[in-house]
Amino acid sequence: DTLFGIESILQPPFVNITRTKTGTEIATRSDFGVEIKNRMEKLNQLKTIPANELHEDVRLPKMVQKNNNMSTLSLPDEKYTAEKVISSEADETQDATLTFSYREDNLSRISLSSQFSAPISRLRKKLLVLDLNGLLADIVSPPPKDCKADKKIARHAVFKRPFCHDFLRFCFERFDVGVWSSRTQKNVERVVDFLMGDMKHKLLFCWDLSYCTATSFKALENKYKALVFKELRKVWEISDPNCPWAKGDYNESNTVLLDDSPYKALLNPPYTAIFPCSYKYQNPSDNSLGAGGDLRVYLEMLAEAENVQRFIQHNPFGQSAITNRSEYWAFYLRAMNTIYFAN
């Protein structure tokens, strides 16, 4: 039989019906047929809209309102998968889900849905976890006398990296972004305020030293600096109901840590971090963050990759990760062992 008149509109390769309750049909054939027809017409209209008229985040036409309670359209290509969810509250009758799919040579898809369990950005974007010092700025103490700092914070000179603001705009457009610094909360907040301004409100999280995994060791490069690690599992396995993401949203396949200290990623799965060389204020011609810069270009490709780990494994960038072949492996192994034995 023709279900809800769907064959008068599309003849998909398969139709799958899931019913969670028994009762009468929640939509008439004619109502559902008109609804699907209207939605297919909207999809056809999208094909003629120039790319610059599409919303940059979810590729919606600019005149289409973003609302998770409303139907949402996204159009990557002509090859697509479509999904329609119908529900009714009348007498708690039944919920039915009709899924139909078109597949042509590849994985490009269109999805039609009246309900989403998560914002569309969560379905599209990878998580980028940014360090501050050495990546977005050079923070120096004591302040140098030969060069005026962009800002002084807690007796430290802060030199903003060239193209920092433009780089941050790019990051927020292409990724979900968090900050994780091994500095104290007060200093992290002040540096983020200076570097990001109003963009800081787009951060998924802003973590400081208190979120790091501590050791009893001091960093090799600075005997006054505590040796700490940044364990991404703390992000992935979050259980705080007040967080804007949930456990399972992120994992090793869609998360990348950017830090100029490779040892801070030692407790993480391999190929979940890249380690750009540290920025120094004495290099005013640095363009890594700018359009066409090496880090910017790398992240452009990473944003489109299917899997973070596979991409990083086959496309190494910056400093090498610390492994058992590294010069100071024995030192870092002792530091890690103190954590495991303590637990």
UniProtKB/TrEMBL annotation:
GO cellular component: TIM23 mitochondrial import inner membrane translocase complex
SMART domains: CPDc
UniProt-listed InterPro entries: FCP1_dom, HAD-like_sf, HAD_sf, TIM50
Subcellular location: Mitochondrion inner membrane
Keywords for this protein: Mitochondrion, Protein transport, Transit peptide, Translocation, Transport
Keyword Signal: no
Domain FCP1 homology: 121-302
Pfam family, one: NIF
Membrane topology: Single-pass membrane protein
Keyword tRNA-binding: no
Primary location group: mitochondrion
Function summary: Essential component of the TIM23 complex, a complex that mediates the translocation of transit peptide-containing proteins across the mitochondrial inner membrane.
Subunit (UniProt): Component of the TIM23 complex.
Family of the protein in this entry: Belongs to the TIM50 family.
PANTHER family reported in the protein's UniProt record: DULLARD PROTEIN PHOSPHATASE
Protein name: Mitochondrial import inner membrane translocase subunit TIM50
Taxonomic path: Eukaryota, Viridiplantae, Streptophyta, Embryophyta, Tracheophyta
